[in-house]
Amino acid sequence: MSYAGDLLPRDSSGPFEHAIAAGVSDDLPIPYAAVLNAYTSPVRFLPWLAAHHSVDLWFDDWSDDRKREMIAQAAGVSTVYPASPIGELKGMRAGAQRYLDFVDADIVDLVSHPARFTFGRAVLGRTPINHLPFTAHYLVRVTLEAPVGRFQVGRSSFGRGALRPVDLEPLRRAKRALSVAKVPDTQYSITFAWRRPITIQDGIPIDGSHAVAGWMDRKCLD
């Protein structure tokens, strides 16, 4: 039986009876498989599908492709990570990076649970200066956009563009991503200072590849 309405009497059945019959038919006129698929679901169903799969990192201004990929990774059906649901990686560096990928940020360095210097059998790991113990410390790279129309000399900027502050939303989103990526009752700190001034100790070549008083990328938290 494909449509239960075929069993209804022709003369005494109305729209209500036919609606009930459609609801109990074997072949429903609703493409459930397509709606529940993150890659084929209509755009208007994406927020509902995200809630269905308990997606906990979501921004309405994301592209539809990014929203679909987040849902797919939460559901464990991603074509990029086919056998690794993102929720199962919480508390791990791989999970943190997966979440940060959705907000265009990268982990440059990570020190997990550093301990203070201890006399005794062993000292495990390394402890960055002024960092709290038993806390995961992240060095994260995020690119910020300078205001359009800003004339800049050195660190100072001029013109009307200088009056508009740099949009810090990428930093807030990176913090949100790391908060989602951690497990409960754990602590983390984050720094976005992924560049530092060049010093003489860096021993940079004098070939024009680096500017005087320029900047270079940091490789670690130390």
TrEMBL record:
Pfam families, A to Z: Tail_P2_I
Organism, scientific name: Endobacterium cereale
Record's protein name: Phage tail protein I
Classification of source organism: Bacteria, Pseudomonadati, Pseudomonadota, Alphaproteobacteria, Hyphomicrobiales
